[in-house]
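Example 9 (inverse folding). The structure is encoded as follows.
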């Protein structure tokens, strides 16, 4: 039985290695794969090579090509335990980030960046809602995520949901996440992609920001989009 588990684990590792190799090859030769689903995969998996955003143009104008839909309808649970859907935000721009409240580093940094960028928008800030969606619904109860987001920004909306609801929304946004169990520790970490999604008032995808996007760059980007 143990041997079977080991074989399964090794197969899994082998598959991941092959995927990473593919991503690596595509990044080295982006033209050959432009517009293909493989290019989209390379964009979404990992951020190290994602285009850094230093100009007024969106960092990734249309990263997944015209054929791949990014974002869309979702049904989740708000910090008060009530159902929240994408329709609740129609008419507002959404700045969406996926993470979890136990995150030791990346999530707090990114949420602070989002908050600080919105602070720089002046009156335009009223047009945008920052949203934090949990990839760890097991621990992120509505109460927990509500208390967590308030540490960063009173405007920040924390959303969680059932395992199925979180699986659905992360699939729509092409978010990668996985539980990482640490040997000898009772708690676990979540490995997750770290991208900020800007969605327009109709709920359509507009731009992606990665952890290399600093506060000033994000504010400039947001101002450009929101003032149109
Ligand atoms: Ni995180």
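The amino acid assigned to each position is listed next.
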């Amino acid at each position: 039985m143990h041997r079977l588990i080991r074989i399964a684990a090794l197969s899994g590792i082998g598959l991941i290695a092959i995927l990473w190799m593919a991503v690596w090859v595509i990044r080295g030769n982006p033209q050959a794969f432009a517009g293909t689903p493989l290019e989209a995969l390379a964009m979404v998996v990992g951020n190290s090579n994602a285009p850094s955003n230093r100009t007024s143009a969106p960092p990734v104008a249309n990263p997944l090509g015209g054929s791949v839909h990014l974002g869309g309808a979702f049904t989740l649970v708000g910090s008060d335990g009530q159902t929240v859907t994408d329709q609740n935000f129609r008419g507002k721009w959404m700045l969406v980030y996926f993470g979890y409240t136990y995150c030791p580093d990346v999530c707090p940094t990114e949420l602070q960046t989002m908050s600080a960028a919105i602070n720089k928008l002046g009156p335009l800030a009223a047009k945008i809602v920052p949203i934090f969606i949990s990839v760890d619904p097991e621990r992120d109860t509505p109460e927990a995520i509500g208390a967590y987001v308030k540490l960063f920004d009173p405007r920040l909306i924390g959303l969680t949901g059932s395992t199925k609801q979180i699986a659905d929304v992360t699939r729509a946004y092409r978010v990668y996440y996985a539980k990482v169990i640490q040997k000898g520790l009772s708690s676990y970490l979540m490995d997750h992609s770290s991208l900020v999604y800007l969605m327009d008032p109709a709920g359509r995808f507009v731009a992606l920001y990665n952890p290399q996007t600093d506060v000033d760059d994000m504010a400039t980007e947001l101002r450009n989009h929101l003032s149109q």
